[in-house]
Amino acid sequence: MVRPRVLVADDQPEIRERIADLLRPDFDVIAFAADGQQAIDSALQLKPEIILLDISMPVFNGLQVASHLRSQGSAAKIIFITVHRDPDVIEAAFLAGAVGYVFKSRIGKELIPAIEEAVAGRKFTSSFQRPAV
Known about the structure:
Radius of gyration: 13 Å
Strand content: 15-25%
Largest sheet: 6 strands, parallel
Oligomer: single chain
Distance between the termini: 47 Å
């Protein structure tokens, strides 16, 4: 079986490295991006199958990156890795073209299943409780 090629885009080096350590046994981590422009450039040049994308990044945020990649015809499956738990942000991520949404606090438990679901053509969202109104 061919190992999916993954681009990891997050402005925090320690998060990028943690994700790479989790993925290396089963996936090919082909590039890292520290901001939205690097993510766009790397994605368009390298054409990864999976893009792990933080929402809060410099230059362009992850939602802008996802929308731009979709408008450029990128077929990569985008999974957001983020601290944002607001249902409106989650909805915006899927509207921007995401197939997955994983909270950074749950990366160790949910990132691999999220990628497996994306590869299988299904969506994945970290479990969360809606805030009480």
